[in-house]
Specification:
The protein is mainly α. It has helices spanning 2-8, 16-28, 33-51, 58-67, 73-84. The radius of gyration is 13 Å and the shape is globular.
Amino acid sequence: MFLYELELNNIINNKIEPMISTLINTINNKLTEDEIYKCVMCLYTLCNKMYGDNQIPSKYLSDIKQLTNTKYMKVKFKLLDIIERR
């Protein structure tokens, strides 16, 4: 969130988009349920701050949809919240 605030205030540039990609890639790794959920919560917060009620760019949306094929229900439902913009 700190990087988001810095980018919002034009102190740094072009750091949030790579961070979203990194979070998506991290979620794909073999992590514990809690670690995955923490990454998903960061992704959720970033998407809410960056895009508000607007649609998430398709380059991320397709990757997030693939992540919903997880065995962890709380992770899946939070990912669906991101997709549905809740």
